[in-house]
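User: Please predict the structure of the protein below. I'd like the answer in structure-token form so I can feed it into my own downstream comparison script.

Assistant: Understood. Taking the following sequence of 146 residues as input:
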Amino acid sequence: MLWKPDKHRLQQILQLLKESQSPDTTIQRTVQQKLEQLNKYSDFNNYLIFVLTKLKSEDDQCLNNIGDSSPLIRATISIVITTLASKGELQNWPDLLPKLCSLYAEDYNTHEGALGTLQKICEDSAEILGSYDLDHPFNIMIPKFL
């Protein structure tokens, strides 16, 4: 059966992602706490996948903001992306790893955001990164690291 998001919950998550762009550290802490709470719900990952793969503007916004000048915003975006990856959703977002690797040539903040996200993905998803299911992403990533 095809999963479809509840419009109200989807709007809440979209609002949370927008709030994550605030430079206010109090708001950032609140966003972080809400993300941790939402992660306990079984369908939360479905919403994140939907946002990051189906809503193109949100997908672009998330990856485009990985280089935000605020370390807290970069960290929040990195957590969202890593959460998806660690739940085995790399197969549904095949251009994620190549895109993150391509961001190395960007400015310092983007480089740091991309590298931090890749580090977290490698820590949390090492088994899937070495699998045949994803055509051995380590073969692409390791030369970038060297």
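That's the full token string. The radius of gyration is 15 Å.
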